[in-house]
Design a protein that fits this description.
The chain has 490 residues and is an all-alpha fold. The chain is built from 22 helices and no strands. It has 2 domains: 201 residues, no CATH class; 185 residues, no CATH class.
């Protein structure tokens, strides 16, 4: 047993060691708070929920606590599946496949047992979870499947009622009702074989797919760390990304055509270079495309179907409120990283005629960032308030509005700072806005539970934001060194 454990222990410990070595604060803070959140959710479900619901919530929470580490471990196995090691290290591929299949079967059985003990369905939980984990593994292997999977699921009302889909579903349902054990066995064998096939054994195709996956990984890391990247994923994805920033080229041509040696013109050109994807044109372009897609999809699905709109207002407004409020995160998460990434370009742009300097540059930069934040929060706040005004969604309890208010206060802290001392963004820095937002939303939900009207809550937050803005403006905007190039005194 000791020899077996020593053989497979490095493979299992690799993801946690890589995360710890990459950023120890992010590792300990992130996983510590995640464990605390899971424990808190489990304790609250057992304490506050009704007895018949508490154990069901506990089963769901424990299942999520098993699936998330498994997905992280499987991503690590894919990263360890290097083409050179697959050809040159004896037994390397076999060990990777063994760990992947055994962990997959163990997590599927444990989660299915937990859910089947509290929910009706029996072996359907094992079959469904085995299929769901396999699809997650496919999406981890090919990242672009997240996009195509979303499109397929959104089109389910059309292809789900087609004759081939109905025939396959009827055959599987009859098999499950007649011989559930045989269906589970065949499904587990087939999916385990398919999962093992995701661990490749070398060759030209393995090299190409491994390099493509490394491009995605470097792209995500560079975006989170604020590093410059010019990686081209593939032509279709690049063209799709241009759709979500359709407004930026139009604005750039306008700004360059009307370029003048004035502070406003120079700052407009500086924003295009220094903010990158965090520029207001990119944020507004993404919002318009997403909202247009939502209107198109929901309009098509609900055409002539009043019951669809009733179900959407009753069950879908929670997800819509979260999605709309997340539009504010683009300003909070990407502005510091992009400003740090473009610090070399900022050093050149400081030579432009008419470039403001010193306190004047700090004032103009802070004003432009605050205007972008207020625009994003204001539009999102109106949309979330409109969702709350629908007749059905009383369960929302102004959650989307509370998220917008939390992002407003956090944005004042993140955008009004001494940019000259800004250090390189780390992974743990991305956790702080989420944690602060959760704490503030919990406080606002508590005020809502105590009976404080939403108008009073908005007024209270606005007063706090004004006081915080005045304090940080005087100390960190007017009293700090010149903001650009960002990070030169870090």
């Amino acid at each position: 047993m000791g020899a077996l454990w020593s053989t497979y222990r490095p493979l299992l410990a690799a993801p946690w060691q890589m995360q710890r070595n990459a950023s120890p604060p992010a590792f300990y803070i992130g996983w510590g708070l995640s464990g605390l959140g899971f424990a808190l959710a489990l304790g609250l479900s057992l304490w506050l929920a009704r007895p018949e619901l508490s154990w069901r919530l506990a089963a769901l929470i424990l299942s999520c606590g098993l699936i998330v580490p498994w997905l992280i471990s499987f991503n690590s196995l894919l990263a360890q599946n290097h083409p050179n090691a697959a050809r040159l290290v004896p037994g390397h591929v076999k060990r990777l496949r063994s760990v992947a299949v055994l962990s997959y079967l163990l997590v599927s059985v444990l989660c299915a047992s937990l859910l089947a003990s509290q929910f009706p369905g029996g072996q359907a939980w094992l079959q469904g979870l085995a299929l769901a984990l396999f699809l997650l593994a496919l999406a981890a292997r090919w990242v672009q499947l997240w996009f195509w999977g979303t499109l397929i699921l959104s089109a389910m009302p059309w292809w789900g009622k087609s004759m081939p889909a109905m025939m396959v579903w009827s055959a599987l349902l009859a098999w499950h009702q007649g011989q559930a054990w045989s269906l589970s066995l065949v499904l587990l064998l087939l999916l385990s074989w398919g999962l093992a096939g995701l661990i490749q054994a070398g060759g030209g195709q393995h090299v190409r797919q491994f390099q493509a996956r490394q491009k995605w990984r470097r792209l995500f890391e560079s975006q989170s760390l604020g590093l410059a990247t010019h990686a081209q994923i593939n032509a279709p994805m690049d063209r799709l990304a241009q759709v979500f920033r359709w407004m930026q080229p139009l604005w750039m041509r306008r700004v360059l055509r009307q370029a003048r040696p004035t502070p406003a013109s120079v700052m407009a050109r500086l924003d295009l270079v220094s903010l990158g994807q965090a520029h207001w044109t990119c944020q507004l372009s993404s919002a318009t495309v997403l909202l247009a897609l939502l209107v198109l999809v929901f309009g098509t699905m609900g055409w002539g179907r009043p019951e669809f709109w009733a179900g959407l207002t009753q069950h879908g407004t929670m997800g819509l409120s979260f999605g709309l409020s997340s539009m504010c995160l683009g300003v909070l998460l990407t502005v510091p990283a992009n400003l740090y990434r473009s610090r070399r370009e900022q050093a050149l742009l400081m030579l432009l005629p008419g470039m403001p300097r010193g306190r004047e540059l700090n004032r103009l930069l802070a004003r432009r960032l605050l205007c972008q934040l207020l625009l994003a929060v204001g539009v999102t706040l109106l949309l979330c308030a409109a969702l709350q005004s629908l007749p059905e969604p009383r369960a929302l309890n102004w959650l989307g509005v509370h998220l917008c208010l939390a992002y407003l206060m956090i944005g004042c802290v993140m955008l009004l700072r001494d940019w000259s001392r800004e250090s390189q963004p780390g992974n743990y820095r991305a956790l702080l806005p989420f944690l602060a937002a959760l704490l503030m939303v919990a406080a606002l939900q508590g005020l809502q539970w105590l009976g404080l009207p939403i108008q009073a809550q908005i007024g209270l937050v606005i007063l706090l934001v004004l006081a915080l803005t005045v304090y940080r403006w005087r100390r960190l905007v007017l009293g700090a060194a010149q903001a650009m190039p960002v990070g030169r005194w870090a």
